[in-house]
Amino acid sequence: MPNFICVTCGVQYAETESAPEHCIICEDDRQYIGHKGQRWTTIPEMQKGYKNRIEEVEPNLTGIGTTPGFAIGQRALLVQTPKGNVLWDCTSLLDDATVEAIRSCGGVSAIAVSHPHLVGSLVDWSYAFDHAPIYWHADNREWVTRPDSAYVFWEGERCDLLDGLTLVRCGGHFPGSDALHWQAGADGRGVLLVGDTMQVAQDRRYVSFMYSYPNMIPLNARTVQHIVDAVEPLAFDRIYGGWWDLIVATDAKAAVKRSAERYIKAIS
Ligand SMILES: [Zn+2]
Ligand SMILES: [Zn+2]
User: Fold this and answer.
1) Who contacts 165 (Cβ-Cβ below 8 Å, separation ≥6)?
2) S-S: 115 plus which of 104, 139, 174, 242, CB 3.0-4.6 Å?
3) Near ion ligand 1, which residues have CB within 5 Å?
4) Cα 173 to middle of ligand 2, angstroms
5) Which ligand is nearest to the CA of 30?
6) Rounded to two decimals, what is the model's pTM?
7) How much distance in Å is there from the Cα of 197 to the middle of ligand 2?
8) In the CATH scheme, what architecture does the domain 5-267 have?
């Protein structure tokens, strides 16, 4: 039986004979149902018209995005370390060329996600890489659309994955929205991978914080401050957002602080 993928959010569901009636991700007020109604595809169907673009974005960090753009259009990231690689967020498309390219980077030891919007077909990715565990914050558990034994539901504020790679819960957009801190990134100055736990702004000097990006629903001051406080103890100089080119290249920790100040002033 096929695992259907929602065309609007790109999230894959458990096996069903026919397409599901609803996408719980898109029916939530943080997302939206496609303007042509609820539509579905599958990985074999996608393989006919899409490919993954796989490119190094800095040493030991590889971006993976689907082209032409599909659904939310995110770019996943593979962090490569001597002790194993972590895939941060995921794409809906998986094909032989992608598996081969990722294997040549050392494969995937673990998958971790920022939140349920950027997860694509992550269970298929887990299967392709020796059932790599999927680290998913327990507070987002209700948004799992394809249950599997690969899930590791971590709780609390922090989760150490591998040497120098730590998940930090920030909340806000989703209660379990998190960031991945990569100590060795940016030549040792530290990197934060954020998905849209913080959204890198188009000027790439600021980030923003929203309950819903497509529906433009802001967060309150207390919640924004909590996100800033969650990353305050970490050393980082660069932020990678969840899309190609959305990067705060340097001085990112100060950028988070000034972004929160500007945001809280705007909503007060
Ligand atoms: Zn959807
Ligand atoms: Zn999101």
Assistant:
1) 79, 81, 86, 180, 181, 182, 183
2) 174
3) 6, 8-9, 23, 25-26
4) 7
5) 2
6) 0.98
7) 7
8) 4-Layer Sandwich (3.60)
Tokens of 56: 């190094």
233-258 mean pLDDT: 98
**Identity of residue 192:** L
- Residue 74 Cα to ligand 1 midpoint, Å, equals 14
How far does the centroid of ligand 1 lie from the alpha carbon of residue 256, in Å? 30
Per domain, the residue ranges of the chain are 5-267
For CA atoms 206, 211, 214, 215, the dihedral sign is negative
**Per-residue burial over 123-135, b = 16 or more CB atoms within 10 Å of its CB, e = otherwise:** bbbbebbeebbbb
Tokens at 197, concatenated: 């736990």
38 Cα to the center of ligand 1, angstroms:
8
pLDDT in tens, 191-202: 999 999 999 999
Residue range 171-213, pLDDT digits in tens: 999 999 999 999 999 999 999 999 999 999 999 999 999 999 9
The ligand minimizing its distance to the Cα of 198 is: 2
**What are the angstrom distances between the C-alpha of 159 and each of 7, 60, 138?**
32, 21, 12
* Ligand 1 midpoint to CA 213 (Å): 15
**Smallest-distance ligand from the CA of 119:** 2
